[in-house]
Design brief:
Elements lengths: L2 H19 L5 H14 L4 E11 L2 E13 L3 E6 L6 H14 L3 E6 L9 E5 L1
Parallel strand pairs: 3-4
Antiparallel strand pairs: 1-2, 2-3, 4-5
Helix pairs in contact: 1-2
């Protein structure tokens, strides 16, 4: 699947979940629903995938966890907050840099219309 198609598919799943459940749930509930949809679609993904930091020759386990990594090509960072802040974008950009994955979606489910809560970031 081409990256743009994959991104569109994942956004479609997120919109469907938001349409059914609405805003206000914990991030973990939305993650569970996305895992269900990704499984149904036959897409490969990892949940709460650990991300080490490599400094020179030292690998540091700093406790970073990627919410979802889909098809080894897309990082999905989920939020359920009043509004997305620059720190949320910085977090996803850091994950992209450390993982070597070039594309990520920042999805805030705590909005009236999900389209306004989605940001695509590309390195």
């Amino acid at each position: 699947m081409v990256l743009n198609e994959l991104t569109g598919c994942v956004i479609g799943f997120a919109i469907e979940i938001h349409r059914v459940l609405g805003p206000g749930l914990l991030e973990s509930a939305y993650e569970e629903c996305l895992a269900y949809e990704l499984s149904r679609a036959g897409l490969a993904f990892k949940r709460q995938h650990p991300l080490p930091v490599v400094y020179k020759e030292v690998r540091l386990d700093c406790g970073y966890r990627l919410d979802l990594v889909i098809e080894e090509a897309l990082i999905l960072e989920l939020k359920s907050v009043t509004s997305l802040l620059p720190v949320h974008e910085a977090q996803l950009l850091t994950y992209l840099k450390l993982s070597g994955i070039s594309t990520g979606l920042l999805v805030n489910f705590n909005v009236p219309v999900l389209k306004s809560g989605i940001k695509r970031l590309v390195l």
